[in-house]
Amino acid sequence: MGILTSASVVFLILLAVTGKPAAIDLHNGGNGDPVAATKPSHEPAAKTVTGPPVSSPGDTLKVRVATWNMRDCAATDALGKRIALHAEIAQLIKETRVDVIVAEEVQVDSKKGGDIALLSVALAQAGWSMPYVYSIDPPGEDDLAVFSKYPIRDTGEIAAPQKGDAWPRAGIAATIDVQGKALHVFGFHFKAMGDSASEASRRAQALAVYNALNDKYGSSISKQAIVLAGDFNTTNPDEFEKKNSTLGILSFRNDTDPNNDFLDANYRYCPDTPTFEDSRYKSVLDHVLVSPTLARTIHKDDVLVISSPKVEAPNVKGSIPASDHRMVAVDIALQ
């Protein structure tokens, strides 16, 4: 499943923003391009939040990159009724001023949730349009998407499992064109659960990602602007620091060159802040890792771990969090 290209999606977004249908002009310039649309000049423009200023060559430009497991953009009340939460999720993305977000547990538009289109509409309604969207449809119900305020190029998958591989699904790959500067974003949803087989699956996928990045970037990897983001389901304590652990492999600590080491931004600066917590268990499951050239500019104030908003729901005492995960956002400087 790729970018939003259907006329019906454009119609929905325009209807959400203007309150009535508009003339539609579709064009598909390649993976990651938005669906362009025109509207009559007498229609009021949607209220938007001012984006980052245009930079000059050589300037440092900051981009806020986030990851969030969105739990299918829904909750269930006490009677088992599904409550859609796209508006609440879009509002938090706007309030956090996210430029690029990797979304896990979203349903592509061909599946029952249709979260990609509905979230695009909700973002437009909130005044924080993210018109560039790319998604993949791996096996199972939990899909991956990248939403961006900047153009998305060079899309695809990374570490797609072959027959006999231990992990269940591929990662998503997208290069973001940030005013002429390339940001390479890779998103993941690793195997869950704390048993030894699940942990081995995570390590195997981490190694596949490590090998894929080495094959792609080679000796230039420390100079590339790379982000690895997602729900890595790092359930067990020994998956974080050690070599040959899930995050040890993803952080490039297994090789012989310390100059290649990636920074696990939220685990480095917020190690005691869980990204998943319920009545039985809590851990840092979600991570944003950045390559060495980006890591040099990141400090504690650049890292945010944000609780999911709570919503009132019928037949539920109290309120329900929009997701059982917290969003992780990191301000990244591109030069």
Word description of this protein:
By secondary structure, this protein is of the alpha+beta class. It is built from seven helices and 18 strands. The protein has helices spanning 7-18, 86-96, 115-126, 196-217, 246-250, 265-269, 292-295, and strands at 61-69, 74-76, 82-84, 100-106, 132-136, 143-148, 152-158, 171-178, 181-189, 226-231, 263-264, 276-277, 282-283, 286-290, 303-306, 310-312, 319-321, 327-334. The strands form five sheets. A six-stranded mixed beta sheet has the order 5-6-4-1-18-15. Mean pLDDT is 84; it is low at 3-11, 17-30 and 35-56.
Name the strands of the widest sheet in spatial order.
5-6-4-1-18-15
Arithmetic mean pLDDT: 84
Fraction of residues in helices? 10-25%
SSE-based structural type: alpha+beta
Report the uncertain regions. 3-11, 17-30, 35-56
Radius of gyration: 20 Å
Number of strands: 18
Major sheet description: 6 strands, mixed
Strand content: 25-35%
Q: Helical element count?
A: 7
Overall outline: globular
First and last CA, distance: 32 Å
Order of helices and strands: HEEEHEHEEEEEHEHEHEEEHEEEE
Per-chain topology:
Layout: H1 7-18, E1 61-69, E2 74-76, E3 82-84, H2 86-96, E4 100-106, H3 115-126, E5 132-136, E6 143-148, E7 152-158, E8 171-178, E9 181-189, H4 196-217, E10 226-231, H5 246-250, E11 263-264, H6 265-269, E12 276-277, E13 282-283, E14 286-290, H7 292-295, E15 303-306, E16 310-312, E17 319-321, E18 327-334
Parallel strand pairs: 1-4, 9-10
Antiparallel strand pairs: 1-18, 2-3, 4-6, 5-6, 7-8, 8-9, 10-14, 11-14, 12-13, 15-18, 16-17
